[in-house]
Amino acid sequence: MVLVGDGGSTKTEWVVVDPERGPIKRFRTKGINPYFYTFAELIEELKQAVVPETVGIALTKVLFYAAGCGNPSSTKILTEAFEACYGSSIETHVGSDMLGAAIALWQNEDGIAAILGTGANSCVYQNQGIVKNVASLGYILSDWGSGAVLGRDLLSEMLTHKMDPKLIEAFYDKYEINKLDVLDRIYHQSKPNKYLASFTPFLKENSFHPQCQAILEDNFNKFFDYYILKYSEVENLKIRLAGSIAFHFSEQIETIAVQKGVEIDKVMQSPIDGLIDYTVDKSTVL
């Protein structure tokens, strides 16, 4: 049996897959990003949330794709954490969420893959691997179009009273927070990116309002300029997107795509189903 995990900063989706028969169990845990955990905390999280879900299942392999796993040190830490929980005999492969999304979106084909969820990223995927990848700098320095940056921009406009008074009133009625609450959550508590992304439903609900439209258009324009149009391959490869923001704001994103002269071939809310198909088809390693 193969345990397949697709982890973002907000949530992680898991599936136990029989390579011959397909998925036999699904479950979800909170996001597992090694940037936000110590080694001991990673082990504790796996033991509390993941191991109990696989009791009695003869796992032979773990395939885990996650935000924050794009460098060797993070990959090593997570590999060792899985081995601490399941034993060193289990075959463990850890890769970036970008690789997982690219595999899910393109399988054995070539194309441009992008993530728009809590964070943002993209790559050129060819010959079943990432051959080009723009720098992923996180929600403070880049990640335009992501849930974290959309939420950040919305909060900035709200807290500086630049929004329509009716929108401000609706916002505070919905979330029942004040400036001190926001500053405490962002600067003094863990996972501020997840907190910021939690405000994107307000943008979705009010996407017809010109000020919300402006935030969305500014972000998605910057997303295409940085994450898509930087690649010369955009001239001959199709584009596919994965992630909650890509899915829920697909109409706005496709409008900007047309303006940029490119076409979105496919949008997938979560990569996990594509990863299941790939695992069943190939019983693959990374």
TrEMBL record:
Gene3D superfamilies assigned: 1.10.720.160, 3.30.420.40
Gene Ontology molecular function: any one: kinase activity
Record keyword Magnesium present: no
Organism field: Sediminitomix flava
TM ranges: none
Name of this chain's protein: N-acetylglucosamine kinase-like BadF-type ATPase
Cross-referenced CDD domains: ASKHA_NBD_PG1100-like
Keyword Transport: no
Keywords: Kinase, Transferase
